[in-house]
Amino acid sequence: MVPWQVFKYIHILAVIAALGANFTYAFWLARAGRDGDRLVFVIESVRRLDRRVANPAYIVAAITGLAIVATGPYGIGEPWIGAAILLYVLVALLGISVYGPAVRAQLALARTDPTSDDYGRAARRARVIGLIVTAIVLVIVGLMVLKPQLWGG
Ligand code: HEM
User: Separation of 9 CA from ligand 1 center, angstroms?
Assistant: First the structure.
């Protein structure tokens, strides 16, 4: 294995860890239902998983992705790489400025009254934003795997 292939191996492991963790969130939230104690435990655990596993893994994916570009056969000018970098920045901004606050609001309402309509609305909002962010990440995976020409003709 040459260096860029080692980076690609680590890149793919990081993507598996990050997306794999993200996919479990809806499962655990559904298991907690509207039970206050369980919800608070699950939402806090999901946030911890995000901070300690998924987000660091996404950072490793970006660093190794750039390392593949620096040492491998693909140039930074490839349209699929440029588009992936733009979408990655968009996902990071959405995660910090929209998804994070939405989950914090959901947690605050889970602590006070998880049976309220307000909690239902906050949970739905966090779920929809989470789905949008995950959909964008899946587009990035599609760009990486299919390497479309896009504007490069
Ligand atoms: C700054 C961001 C990124 C850059 C510059 C980048 C760059 C690259 C490069 C150059 C490859 C090698 C392609 C090949 O050898 O076939 C690759 C592979 C891959 N990347 Fe990324 N990547 C980035 C972020 C991501 C993210 C965020 C994901 C998914 C969440 C992702 C998923 C993948 C996958 C699944 C492959 C394997 C594709 C294949 O073997 O056909 N990448 N990436």
Answer: 10
